[in-house]
């Protein structure tokens, strides 16, 4: 095996991991409750209580979905006292959502 075939194998493995990670992100984004949460915090950070009220979800359900979004690096939060204020982690998430919404409207 020459040097180039080794590099190609490494690239293929890396690509497989990226594809796996991408599929996982779409799986996480494929939930209506999570999409509503992301849209709710698109413009400003909010605490779980506000998010649960605005998205008509129980506090527990909203908290569970936020944990999933956080575990998948789609949202971040800051702590203030006993409250956590959630925000979208970066603009890529909003761009993906906007593209999907635009596509659904066609």
Automatic annotation (TrEMBL):
Q: Does the keyword Transcription regulation apply?
A: yes
Does the keyword Signal feature in the UniProt annotation?
no
Which InterPro entries does the UniProt record give?
ArsR-like_HTH, HTH_ArsR_DNA-bd_dom, Metal_resp_trans_reg, WH-like_DNA-bd_sf, WH_DNA-bd_sf
Q: Which SUPFAM superfamilies match?
A: Winged helix' DNA-binding domain
Pfam families this protein is in? HTH_5 (PF01022)
What GO molecular functions are on record for this protein?
DNA binding; DNA-binding transcription factor activity
Q: Which terms are listed as keywords in the entry?
A: DNA-binding, Transcription, Transcription regulation
Taking every annotated instance into account, which residue ranges of this chain make up the domain HTH arsR-type? 14-106
Q: Which PANTHER family match?
A: ARSENICAL RESISTANCE OPERON REPRESSOR ARSR-RELATED, HTH-TYPE TRANSCRIPTIONAL REPRESSOR CZRA
Task: Please report the name of this protein according to its UniProt entry.
Answer: Transcriptional regulator, ArsR family
């Amino acid at each position: 095996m020459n040097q180039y075939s080794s590099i190609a194998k490494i690239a293929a493995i890396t690509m497989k991991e990226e594809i796996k990670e991408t599929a996982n992100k779409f799986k996480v984004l494929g939930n209506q409750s999570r999409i509503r949460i992301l849209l709710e915090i698109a413009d400003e950070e909010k605490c779980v209580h506000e998010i649960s009220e605005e998205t008509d979800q129980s506090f527990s359900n909203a908290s569970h979905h936020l944990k999933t979004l956080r575990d998948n690096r789609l949202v971040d939060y800051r702590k203030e006292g006993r409250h956590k204020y959630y925000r979208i982690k970066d603009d890529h998430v909003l761009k993906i959502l906007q593209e999907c919404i635009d596509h659904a409207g066609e």
